[in-house]
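Good morning C.,

I know you're traveling, so I'll keep this short. The sequence:
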Amino acid sequence: MAIRVQTRFPFHLIISNFQKIPPYSLHKLSSFSRTLNPPSKFEVPENSQFRQRVSLANLLQRYGVPSSNLNGFLRENQFLLNFSLSDVEKSLGILLSFKLSQKSLVSILFSCPRVLELGFLKKWEMGFSTLGFSAASPMAIQRVLEQSQRFRIEPADLYKNLEVMKDLGFSDETVTRVLEEFPRVIMMSVRDLNLRIEFFKGSGLKGYEIDRVCYSFPGILGFSVENRLRHLFEEFEDLGFSKNEVRKAVIENPRLLSLEVGELSKCVELLRTLKCRLPIKEKILHRGLFRAGIEVKLRVDCLCRHGLIRREAFIVLRREPRSIIYELEDVEKKIEFLLHRIGLNIGCLVEVPEYLGVNLEKQIIPRYNVIEYLRSKGGLGFEVGLKGLVRPSTLRFYNLFVKPYPECEKIFGRLPRDVEVRTRHPVGLWKLFKPQQFPKSKEDMRNIKLFMESLV
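The tokens, ready to paste straight into the viewer:
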């Protein structure tokens, strides 16, 4: 049973003690209590930076800027808060008048946010209309605006370089392509542009061929003549290639001019010292040594992109020349299958380069499917690596992994049993080579019997 105890405090004692508190202490208590109570309403000044930031964010979001990137964008570009909202909206309207897509608009804002300066855009709006630049692609306009804002380029500079390219014989399509892929051309001097074109003409290229080359590879205009192009063409000459052969190769694949000096020499040396069957070598060189060297270079770059060093890439190609015959797309597929399906690293190709020389669809995939099936069923008593997958002949692989398991024949496919065997001689000719038989006499039989008895 709980006992409830009630304690009574004399109320008159509490009152008397409260009356003994000094008046200044009561004043402190009252002021302290007022500071504990927060204000009922937080007011933001009308012209505060916070309100400007929110308004600018809402405006940019209406024009397609992702809301997830707005905070970081405005934090990195605080100068935008000094622009008035009306000016920013006018700037966005001018950018849209250039027929920029929403993706291009967002891209140019993040790559070069100072294009939102209204005076800058009005200047270029007038410049584009004066130059008749309205027919240019939106991508070309975007590149020009980015370059001009970063490096303070005026419309007069663009007009001067456009006139130079027109005088050099560039078509409108090539000029647009160059501005899209290599916008730094508007920063180049007239002398540098003329120097490059004159060098190409001296190398045997005609005017329309230079136009085609610059359309396919605009970055070629950025290569230095004295420090790069001249040394590269001298290397071609030292390797024994004629000027006409180089000209045809450049027209077919202008990006070969992006070769580093000495790079093609290593590829040609590999081809000249290649040891392989004659039919394979003829297939590699059927379009000439120059183009074969370019094919080697492309495959070396492909192997290096996936993790091999250049020395290892050359070792792989030297030990497996058939990989040069396969298209580069097929080589990419084999490497992707090795890395992502089989789950091995790119270094395995140094030990088993034959992997790149066999057919992916007809040999690698069926064998891999059989091995995976047997591994899942516990039918393998040992681990089958890349060597066991690639190096055995079709008949040996079939006898080892397919023939003992009939269900694997559906995965691997049956061997062609009804193959017509071609005879090396006409039908009936074999009878002429059959040795003549003579009847055995009694003496021959006795001699054979004596010989056999002597062996016992």
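Safe travels,
E.
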